[in-house]
Amino acid sequence: MEFVKVLKTSKFLDPAQGFSATERYSEVRVDPLTGRTSRILDFPVKEVLRADVSRQVELSRGLCPFCPGVVEAVTPKFHPDLVSRERYSRGEALCVPNVFPYDENGAVCIICREHYLPLRSFTPRILEDALSCCFEYLEDVVIRQPEMVFQSVNWNYMPLAGGSIIHPHLQITASSSSTNYYAHVVPCLARYREETGRDFWADLRDEEQKNAERCISAAEGVTWLAAFAPLGVFDVMGILHEALRPGDVTGQTLRELVQGILNVLEYIDSLNMGSLNMSLYFLGGNPLFVPHIRICPRVSIPPLDTSQVNYMKMLHDESLTTLKPEDICKDLQAFWHGRGA
Questions:
Q1: pLDDT value at position 47?
Q2: For residue 45, what pLDDT is reported?
Q3: Where are the domains of the chain?
Q4: pLDDT of residue 341
Q5: CB 32 within 8 A of CB 204
Q6: Which CATH architecture has domain 73-305+323-341?
Q7: pLDDT tens, 120-172?
Q8: 132 near 248, Cβ under 8 Å?
Q9: What is the pLDDT of residues 73-124, one digit of tens each?
Q10: In Å, what is the CA distance from 265 to each residue of 184, 276, 319?
Q11: How confident is the model at residue 302 (pLDDT cuts 50, 70, 90)?
């Protein structure tokens, strides 16, 4: 397995240095599975100022369909032709159909009763119940619709990350059609097996543990890595080695998964970042595809609140960051150790 870095050097005459020759450096990193590239820029990292969301949160309360008192009346129920229950619930979590679905089986899991939770306020019980509720729905879908093999649990936390409702909620999809992510990853997994005779995910775990640059934590059920070629500002990846289906994510594996998510949430919060995207991917019927999760924070760049998504990401599908995965790994390890995970 190769971790390819292409080092780039740019030269210009810098007015800040009396127009003397100056060099800037960047890296193009190649994903060891897909060949997809990401760029790490030599750019001064500005401190992210914590956004005040209090007004945004208060204005959204009166319009929220997920709050107690209205949620039962205004959210839909699942069609009996598709699944066995009208709604799914566990603890405070409630899973209902998405009224604006991205696919034929789109659902929303309302995580908790509280209208707004800061990143540090999520607890193991809240996330375990919410994820288990999602997994119950996904397991039920394939009983009557076995072709719905492309399954994922996703999170747009806060508007900056695409969340249209403040109230914490997950989005669940079960589809017969792949997203581009699956379309890139699945053929590459088959090619890796054909060329090496080995499992990509086990090799990735072993290689990252050996080089010790990006392996944050390697527990029995989940290995956590700072992705070598990140998809965002930084990209934390968790590989679930003991699961194939949503229904397999129980017991210790579920606890490790949730604790890892909480560690990442705390780390993101420590950087004054208040938004994130998360996806947990499953693919039924393909033992080469191991369930895994990716978490990327979302930020706007000061002082003009510039979007981190520019032409390079939008039209070239090329991710940019100024943060090296190796540095993110070192910082995040302290959060794992501090929580005892």
A1: 76
A2: 65
A3: 73-305+323-341
A4: 44
A5: yes
A6: 2-Layer Sandwich (3.30)
A7: 999 999 999 999 999 999 999 999 999 999 999 999 999 999 999 999 999 99
A8: no
A9: 999 999 999 999 999 999 999 999 999 888 899 999 999 999 999 999 999 9
A10: 27, 9, 21
A11: low
Closest Cα to residue 31, out of 241, 229, 237?
229
Task: Extract long-range pairs of 2-11: CB within 8 Å, 24+ residues apart.
Answer: 2/30, 2/32, 3/29, 3/30, 3/32, 3/207, 3/211, 3/228, 4/29, 4/30, 4/32, 5/29, 5/30, 6/30
**pLDDT band at residue 220 under the 50/70/90 scheme:** confident
